[in-house]
DNA sequence: TAGTGGTCTAGACCACTGG
DNA sequence: CAGTGGTCTAGACCACTAT
């Protein structure tokens, strides 16, 4: 007996989970239909569906309306490394994100959703060390790996820095991108500060990132600092958890 | 109309979500009972329960058998910083984990679950740069913040390093803990490498960490390196997402 | 059109919590 | 004990996918 006295839906979930982990159902494979499972186990269809839902919440199974329930295959993670701002990527013209996508046979690209002047939310003001509610530039982007949206990214820059610069345009008019513009204005990245947490997506995020149930997001808040410890840019990444990860490599100080 | 043509369970979920976010139901507050909701909205109890379940999956609500459904309050995060291995914590005798707990009025402690000699799993061998299946020491711990288990931690050390050392004992016989022992043997931490990802907990992890549904975990794999880039220790953290986060602060190289 | 999941109903009984 | 969630049943109809 796997466990003692599990109710039918959980018992079925336990059996299916074991079969998945044992490889009886391979990644990508379709599970028996809920009606079939119900008949085989002598339970109501609702109860079989409940078992499948439990597995979906664990991230083991994806449910597809009209098609069936499928074993979720492990996705290769697109790892954003702590060296992603390193000058070494400059000349190649390739960003770490694009490199990672390529490594996996995908096509990376990003899309500008909006560029606006807004009043800073409190957490942005805190990170930037400016007054709460002061003007900041907000740029919103989506990063795609082939047809999957993987990151939802929002960048904030103090208005005093952004004003009159190429940052206001949709297409960044600089060979080295957004950070090229900062450097031209004298803001050279010396340190970065990043906070990481995880949570379930809001319904809105789930829609934007096309997330099935059972997939959390990583929320990363990145701050760029000059050698004088001046914060000149904050970026918030919302990353789909099943396709992304982080990699840090740093000295102990 | 919030959306068009939502089915009853989702419609109720949408309404409750709005009330929660608006503060009509405060954090910690009890929602109306499922039977009450069902009566008020003219739907079956199952349907009302389904709405609540949706909110639980999003992490907004915690369901408590026999008591009721409650709005989940934001937990203060225990942030493990990248400086947690910094020598500056040495003399104080306080670890960053304990400091964070204290800051929140909690009592931090940890418990040793097991200390064993095993054959290295593949990922451990890869991180340590040793042969797959070679002997390693495995130490398993749980970290508590007052009565909540927050991290499940497993450390691996090449057997050649661990053999005959204090690492084999349950209680580490060194004033500076496990890393004190490494240093005495000539392994001084010069760099760290950490990979971070998120996922839903396995049922086992959910039980160990006492996780309600709608709470993902952070999985961090930490590797300690000497100045010569020799990896001498790997640790895997499984952290409950609603109570923990990470904080990195590092130079751009 | 047939097959699959999405969802609902109405009623039932069990299991847990708290007085 | 009463109140609450946990779960099940049996049947129904809808919505989506594929042929």
From TrEMBL, chains A, B:
Keywords: DNA-binding, Transcription, Transcription regulation. Coiled coil: none annotated. It comes from the Bacteria. Residues 6-74 form the HTH gntR-type domain. GO terms for molecular function: DNA binding; DNA-binding transcription factor activity. The keyword DNA-binding applies. This is GntR family transcriptional regulator. SUPFAM superfamilies: Chorismate lyase-like, Winged helix' DNA-binding domain. Transmembrane segments: none annotated. One of its GO terms (biological process) is negative regulation of DNA-templated transcription. The lineage of its organism: Bacteria, Bacillati, Actinomycetota, Actinomycetes, Pseudonocardiales. InterPro entries: Bact_HTH_transcr_reg, Chorismate_lyase_/UTRA_dom_sf, Tscrpt_reg_HTH_GntR, UTRA, WH-like_DNA-bd_sf, WH_DNA-bd_sf. PANTHER family: GNTR-FAMILY TRANSCRIPTIONAL REGULATOR, MANNOSYL-D-GLYCERATE TRANSPORT/METABOLISM SYSTEM REPRESSOR MNGR-RELATED.
